[in-house]
Specification:
Shape: globular
Number of strands: 15
Strand content: 15-25%
Distance between the termini: 72 Å
Number of helices: 18
Structural class: alpha+beta
Largest sheet: 13 strands, mixed
C-alpha cells in the first residue's frame, strides 16, 4: 500500500458537542472520539451522542465507541504496522480505528464495515484519504483472526501507564493488562433499609433479570477497651448482573430499592461504619464522656462525596431499623449511646453537589426524608474545597469528627474498564499532581479528626503512588496515626504494607479500589 495521506490543512475537523448531533452513526462516533482526544470526557459526550440517535442505532453506537476506546492503543499500534508511511492526521487515524473495531471486535460484515467507514471519511471532508482507508481495511478483512491476535497480544494502554503498572504489579501485570481491556460487570447495591439482598434477587428473577449473589468478607483488627486487638468481621452482599441492564428496567429502582454501584465500592461504607461502631463501643464500655460532643452527638464527614453513592450507602446503614449506631449492646442489654448523628458531606463542584441531592432523593435519604422518618440524623451538604475547608468554622476546637470517609481524588486508573477515555486523557504528569492534591486533603482533614476516630482512605486508582505510598508518606509525617490491619479472612484485594488493593483482573471482579483505615492516636 503506497497511498499516503496528504490532506489540505484548511479543512481540519474541530470537534465540538454540536458536531456530534449530525451525520451517520459512524460519523458521530468518529466525532465523539475526536472530541475525547481534544480533552472532553466520555461522560460529557456520551449522552449527546446517544440522544442524537434513533433507538435502533444507540446500541451499535455505544458498542462501537466503547470498544474502540478500550482497544485504542492496541489499534493504534496495529495501524502503524499496516501503513507504509506515518499517518499524522488524527481524523484519518480515528476513522481507520473505527473501521478496525468493526472488523476485529464487533463482527460487522466486511462490506458494511469498509463501505460505511469510507463513506464516513467523505462526510467529515476527508475524501482524499478514502483510498488509504479502504486499502488498510481490506487488508485486515482478508485475515481478521490474524490481526485480532496481533492486536490482543499486548496491552492497550499508553506506554507510560503500562510501564508504571509493570513496576507496581509485576506478578499480576499480564492478567491486569487483559482485564483492563474488558467491559466491567454491572453490580447492584440493595438498600437493606427497604428490602433484603435475597428478596431483591428474587424480584429480579420475576423481571427475567439474572443476577448472582456476591459476598465480600472484610475483617480488621481494632483495639478494644483492654488495649488488645480484636477481629471485626463484616459481610457485604451485592448482586452481579449477568448482563448490563437499563436502570429503568430494574424493579423498584425509582423507589430507591437498589443502586448501581461497583462491588468493591460497596466496601467503603461498611468499613468506616463498623470502625465508628467500634469507637462508640469503646467509649460506652469505658463510660468515657466525650467533652467535644453535645449530649452524645457524633459527627461524621464524607469528603469528596459526589456523586453520593458511598454517602447514600452510609446513610442507609445509619438509618436502618436494625442499625446498632443508636443502641449498642452492653451486658446483654441495648443501651442508648448516640442521641444524634450529624453528617457532613463536601465536594468542590456545584454540579456534582446537585447529583448528590438527586441520588439521595431517589433513595429517600434527603434531610426532609430523614426528618419525616424521625431519624436522629442531621445532614449537611457543603460545596467546599477539601484542601482548605474547616468543619469547626470559627470554633476554637478543631477536633470535630468521629469518623471521616475520604473518597480521595485520583487518576481513576482502576475504573478504566468503565471509563476507557481515562487512558487517553490521563498523562504521567497527572499522577504527580494528583498525589500532591491527595496529600493536601489529608493534611487538612487529619487535624479535624478526634482522638480515637477513624479515617478511611479510598481511591479508585491502581497506582501505588496514589495509594500505599501515599499512606506511607502520610504516616511518616504524623506521629499520632496508626494503620489498622486488615485480617486474613478478607476475601478481596491484595494485602499491602498499609491497606488492601483490589485489581480489575477478570470479567467478574469489581473495579480497582484501594482501602486504608487509619486511627488517630494520642499525641
Amino acid at each position: 500500500m503506497r497511498q499516503t495521506s496528504t490532506a489540505p490543512r484548511n479543512n481540519k475537523l474541530k470537534p465540538s458537542s454540536n458536531l456530534i448531533m449530525n451525520g451517520s452513526v459512524r460519523v458521530r462516533v468518529i466525532r465523539t472520539l475526536l472530541a475525547i482526544q481534544n480533552g472532553q470526557s466520555l461522560a460529557s459526550v456520551l449522552d449527546p451522542l446517544l440522544n442524537s440517535l434513533h433507538d435502533g442505532d444507540k446500541g451499535f453506537a455505544h458498542a462501537l465507541l466503547l470498544t474502540t476506546l478500550r482497544q485504542w492503543y492496541a489499534l493504534e499500534r496495529l495501524l502503524d504496522s499496516l501503513a507504509d508511511n506515518p499517518i499524522d492526521e488524527k481524523e484519518v487515524r480515528t476513522t481507520i480505528q473505527v473501521g478496525l473495531t468493526q472488523l476485529l471486535y464487533l463482527q460487522v460484515a466486511d462490506h458494511a464495515a469498509i463501505h460505511e467507514t469510507v463513506e464516513a471519511a467523505k462526510e467529515i471532508e476527508f475524501a482524499h484519504a478514502t483510498g488509504l482507508i479502504n486499502a488498510i481495511l481490506r487488508k485486515v478483512a482478508k485475515n481478521p483472526s490474524k490481526f485480532r491476535k496481533k492486536c490482543d497480544k499486548k496491552h492497550s494502554l499508553p506506554n507510560w501507564l503500562a510501564y508504571q503498572l509493570k513496576q507496581d504489579w509485576s506478578e499480576e501485570y499480564d492478567d491486569l493488562m487483559q482485564g483492563l481491556r474488558q467491559p466491567a460487570p454491572m453490580f447492584l447495591r440493595v438498600n437493606t433499609a427497604v428490602t433484603s439482598v435475597e428478596d431483591y434477587q428474587q424480584a429480579l428473577v420475576e423481571f427475567e433479570i439474572e443476577a448472582d449473589l456476591v459476598e465480600l468478607m472484610s475483617g480488621f483488627k481494632l483495639p478494644n477497651s483492654s488495649d488488645t486487638a480484636t477481629s471485626n468481621s463484616i459481610l457485604t452482599k451485592g448482586l452481579r448482573l449477568h448482563q448490563s441492564t437499563a436502570v429503568n428496567a430494574l424493579p423498584q429502582f425509582a423507589e430507591g430499592a437498589a443502586s448501581v454501584q461497583d462491588m468493591h465500592a460497596q466496601l467503603a461504607a461498611p468499613l468506616i461504619h463498623n470502625a465508628l461502631l467500634n469507637k462508640l463501643n469503646i467509649k460506652n464500655d469505658d463510660a468515657d464522656v466525650d467533652t467535644e460532643t453535645n449530649n452524645n452527638e457524633i459527627r461524621i464527614l464524607d469528603a469528596c462525596a459526589a456523586p453520593g453513592g458511598k454517602l447514600a450507602h452510609w446513610l442507609e446503614l445509619i438509618s436502618s431499623n436494625e442499625s446498632s449506631l443508636f443502641h449498642v449492646k452492653q451486658n446483654d442489654e441495648s443501651v442508648p449511646v448516640v442521641s444524634k448523628v450529624k453528617v457532613t458531606a463536601i465536594d468542590n463542584e456545584a454540579l456534582r453537589i446537585e447529583r448528590i441531592y438527586t441520588n439521595l432523593q431517589r433513595l429517600n435519604l434527603s434531610q426532609h426524608d430523614l426528618q419525616q422518618a424521625e431519624k436522629n440524623i442531621e445532614l449537611n451538604i457543603v460545596c467546599a474545597d477539601a484542601t482548605t475547608w474547616q468543619g469547626a468554622g470559627k470554633k476554637k476546637s478543631k477536633l470535630v469528627f468521629d469518623a471521616i470517609l475520604l473518597d480521595s481524588p485520583c487518576t481513576a486508573t482502576g475504573v478504566i474498564r468503565r471509563h476507557p477515555d481515562i487512558s487517553i486523557l490521563r498523562t504521567e504528569e497527572d499522577v504527580e499532581q494528583t498525589a500532591l492534591l491527595q496529600a493536601d486533603i489529608l493534611h487538612n482533614l487529619w487535624p479535624q479528626l478526634k482522638v480515637g476516630g477513624y479515617l478511611l482512605y479510598v481511591t479508585c486508582s491502581i497506582l501505588k503512588q496514589e495509594n500505599v505510598e501515599q499512606m506511607q508518606d502520610f504516616m511518616t509525617y504524623y506521629n499520632n496515626v496508626a494503620a489498622v490491619e486488615f485480617s486474613d479472612d478478607c476475601n478481596w484485594g491484595i494485602a499491602q504494607a498499609i491497606g488492601r488493593q483490589c485489581l480489575p483482573i477478570d470479567s467478574e471482579s469489581g473495579d480497582g479500589f484501594y482501602y486504608a483505615l487509619l486511627q488517630k492516636t494520642a499525641e
